[in-house]
Amino acid sequence: MAEALIVIDVQKDFCPGGALAVPDGDAIVGGINALMADTAAVILTQDWHPAGHSSFASSHEGRVPYDVTQMPYGDQVLWPDHCIQGSIGAQFHAELHADRADLLLRKGHNAAIDSYSAFFENDRTTPTGLEGYLRTRGIDRLVMVGLALDFCVNYSAVDAARLGFDVTVRRDLCRAIDLAGSLAAALDGMQTAGIALETAHG
Question: Which residues belong to the active site?
């Protein structure tokens, strides 16, 4: 099977010192670079929000980050303002070998809906176009790494499995937010979906 590496949102705002820092988020960069060097097809995703995005707590009067609100498409965690288009925080981590990518997929640019998954916006039906790109390249096996394991990596992996791709998540090359049990729930959901959860040693 033809294989692609999907590198999810390794951006400054998700690394220590960023607006929505994932603990140890920068510790995975070296391992991801090594994996990119050994993979024929590499896709990077990039969170790319307009200012005032509907998923930002600052866009909802009286709400604070990590509150959950109801959107037309369901529950939505409200986040600190992060990965705003053109900002320093939206840039890839400085040590990530971003030039290695065949494709850069920006997501979350629709102000009315968040987009955790590399394949669909959070309504779970509006496609990003990544599936078509992979199909036309004959790619059917995906390895996923990046940030955060319990949100964007999880949603991307489950959607990919639902679409029929063979999916492996390298847990050692991901880090999690773990918001109110989100990590355990994500791991359970990925296993139920038939996703292989591996480390460098299998």
Answer: 9, 107, 152
